[in-house]
């Protein structure tokens, strides 16, 4: 009888250890994503655009030089401290991609207390979670497009049926 009790106690103790470890692992994963995004926003706030460029995914054909110039031309940047990022939540996470939701406090905008609350895509590359360049440009009020005139013709003018 004593052996049965100690066996049951051992199984119960093992179950409790496993049950309490699982939420810790999930919480660690949240903090890794949140920490990575926070570090990226810090680089932006500090004006360290060369390092920021390296922390961004899906850069397309945007060169480091073009990125740095566009970021220097905008006054918008993440707020400091607790206002920088609030309401952080993981919506979806896979091995190399995650979708998160957060409210980012912003400075340098037309209104004194501005923010951007939305979803962000993060990509796991080179051992770190990276924000997307398009998200940073969007929040900063920067377009990814080159300035100048478009070479596309209007469909109505290029149609052979147009009079």
What would a concise description of this structure say?
With 163 residues, this protein is α+β, with helices and mostly antiparallel strands. It has five helices and six strands; from the N terminus they run H-H-E-H-E-E-E-E-E-H-H.
Shape: globular
Largest sheet: 6 strands, mixed
**Uncertain runs with pLDDT below 50, 5 residues or more?**
20-26, 147-163
Over all CA atoms, what is the radius of gyration? 24 Å
Average pLDDT score: 82
Give the number of domains: 1
**What percentage of residues falls in helices of 4 or more residues?**
40-55%
Order of helices and strands: HHEHEEEEEHH
Report the CATH topology name: Nuclear Transport Factor 2, Chain: A
N-C termini distance: 100 Å
CATH top level assignment: Alpha Beta
In terms of DSSP E residues, the strand content is 25-35%
CATH architecture: Roll
Q: Quick one: how many beta strands?
A: 6
Class by helix and strand content? alpha+beta
Query: Can you say what the CATH homologous superfamily is?
Result: NTF2-like, domain 1
Number of contiguous helices? 5
């Amino acid at each position: 009888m004593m052996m049965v009790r100690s066996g049951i106690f051992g199984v119960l103790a093992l179950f409790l250890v496993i049950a309490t470890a699982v939420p810790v692992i999930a919480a660690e994963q949240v903090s890794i994503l949140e920490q990575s995004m926070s570090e990226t926003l810090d680089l932006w706030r500090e004006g360290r655009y060369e390092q920021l460029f390296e922390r961004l995914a899906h850069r397309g054909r945007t060169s480091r030089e073009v990125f740095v110039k566009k970021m220097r031309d905008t006054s918008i940047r993440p707020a400091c401290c607790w206002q920088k990022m609030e309401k952080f939540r993981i919506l979806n996470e896979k091995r190399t991609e995650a979708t998160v939701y957060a409210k980012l406090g912003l400075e340098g905008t037309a209104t004194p207390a501005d923010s951007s609350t939305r979803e962000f895509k993060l990509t796991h590359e080179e051992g770190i979670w990276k924000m997307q360049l398009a998200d940073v440009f969007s929040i900063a009020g920067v377009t990814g497009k080159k300035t100048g005139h478009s070479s596309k013709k209007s469909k109505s003018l290029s149609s052979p049926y147009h009079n």
